[in-house]
Design a protein that fits this description.
heterodimer, A: mainly alpha, 11 helices, B: Cytochrome Bc1 Complex, Chain D, domain 2, two-stranded antiparallel sheet
């Protein structure tokens, strides 16, 4: 019986085995990169909104406190999106002819709410509560980034579980003084002594049980 | 080169077979199966499974069919899942019997006496169940601190942090509100400020939705403190505060 395969097939076989390993690795690495890329996580991607609301103008320039609009952030899980009445507190007098604000005036006149595009939305199988993070001294900018410098809103962090755990494992790297939680100008990492003192003072625990968030 | 035929023999040998012929048939079947015949039915059933699951409706666990706060809804006319309070109803814990406290006026007349006890209770500054519900200096200071914080959040945009009425929004063109430090407003009863915050006044909108009643009263207390701050006599200050003042120039 003649030989079916030429001896060179040995080399080809070895190369293809190596190739398979590397190609598979490359494919897996590519998938992992794609999952972490802004294409999937939306980090740094500006969302289309009915009104081009600028946090830079309202927070950075005018100096409004986060809580002027996000009134429920200290007491509930949800920070709260203000009703158009809150916009009209000032815009009943300012920029009253602006075409950009026409949807706001229409909404106020008709009672039909504006349909904002949500920028931060954790998956439904994750329990998240704003109020507890605020009362434990986690500043807004730690998660939302320098909002006072954002002309339009984007997501600053991936909201991946790893990102949550980075802080839940080592809260001392992210904790700040409660008095500065809403101060968008302060985004510093405290020195270890001060940070650990705050961790004790606020009774912060490193919560990494699955059911802390998946309940 | 590679001997991949060893496995089927082991599998076939593990099968119970009573007669020799049957066993040989089975061995042939198992050989064919392990050689790849399974691919065709497996692929077909996977396709069917995918088609069926797609047809049945794909459910995303990250976005489950329940409403989050303020989520859009096609069910209600204005397209919003969160419902406004139905008129004529009272939410649990929101019954407003104390009209002086919640409205700041009785029979159209602004309240004259500041409701320290009610404010302290609403802000949770008094120990639960304590017999002597006394609002001491310590509690009053906490109310003032709360008032200062809330004033800076909600009022300072127009009234500025000293209450003179030159806040950032005013500097951007909003009509200036009156200064708190005029004789008229210094003489105004506490209820007046509460009523204005609750109902609005002139071009000022109401803040009833943004600021809960107890916080509105705390702000009123802080407005009084601001008024005092602009008219305090140096002689009335405690020594610690007096020492903090910049040294006055001695006149020869």
């Amino acid at each position: 019986m003649p030989q079916i395969f030429h001896p060179s097939m040995n080399t080809i076989a070895r190369v293809s085995i190596f190739g398979a390993v590397f190609i598979l690795t490359a494919i897996i690495a590519l998938l992992l990169l794609v999952v972490r890329s802004p294409y999937v996580t939306d980090v740094g991607v500006v969302r289309e909104q009915p009104v081009p609301f600028s946090h830079k103008h309202h927070v950075g320039d005018v100096g409004l406190d986060c809580r002027y609009c996000h009134t429920s952030v200290e007491d509930s899980s949800f920070a709260g999106i203000p009703p158009t009445k809150t916009c009209m507190n000032c815009h009943s007098q300012l920029f009253t002819e602006s075409a950009m604000l026409q949807p706001v005036r229409d909404s106020f006149a008709t009672g039909q709410p504006l349909h904002w595009t949500r920028v931060h939305d954790v998956p439904d199988f994750v329990y998240f509560d704003h109020s507890i993070h605020i009362h434990k001294g986690i500043g807004c900018v730690k998660c939302h980034g320098p909002v006072n410098e954002m002309p339009l809103m984007w997501r600053e962090q991936t909201l991946h579980m790893k990102w949550c755990l980075d802080c839940h494992r080592q809260p001392e790297l992210f904790v700040g003084d409660r008095a500065n939680v809403f101060n968008t100008a302060i985004d510093v990492q405290l020195d270890p002594v001060a940070a650990n003192a705050l961790v004790d003072k606020y009774h912060i625990q490193s919560k990494t049980d699955c059911y802390t968030c998946h309940r | 080169m590679f001997r991949v035929r060893a496995l089927p023999t082991i599998v076939a040998g593990a099968l119970p077979c009573a007669e020799r012929e049957t066993c040989a048939e089975r061995r042939d079947a198992v050989d064919a199966w392990t050689n790849g015949a399974w691919i065709v039915p497996a692929t077909l059933s996977l396709c069917v499974l995918l088609l069926v699951s797609a047809g049945c409706g794909y459910q995303d666990m990250a976005d489950q069919p329940h409403y989050e706060p303020l989520e859009a809804s096609e069910f209600f006319a204005e397209g919003q899942a969160s419902r406004p309070l139905i008129s004529g109803t009272v939410a649990r814990g929101h019954l407003r019997i104390d009209r002086a406290f919640f409205e700041g006026q009785v029979d159209g007349k602004p309240v004259e006496v500041y409701p320290w006890l009610a404010v302290a209770r609403q802000l949770g500054l008094l120990a639960d169940g304590a017999e002597s519900q006394e609002v001491d200096e310590h509690v009053r200071a906490q109310i003032l601190e709360r008032g200062q914080q809330r004033f800076n959040i909600f009022c300072s945009a127009c009234h500025d942090r000293t209450g003179s009425g030159q806040g950032m929004v005013v500097q951007r063109g909003f009509p200036a509100p009156p200064s708190y430090h005029s004789d008229r407003l210094r003489a105004a009863p506490v209820g007046h400020f509460y009523v204005v915050a609750t109902q609005g006044f002139g071009r000022m909108p109401d803040y009833a939705d943004q600021i809960p009643p107890a916080d509105r009263w705390a702000i009123v207390a802080y407005v009084r403190a601001l008024q005092l701050s602009q008219h305090a006599e140096v002689g009335e200050l405690p020594p610690a505060d007096r020492a903090a003042l910049p040294a006055e120039e001695d006149t020869p």
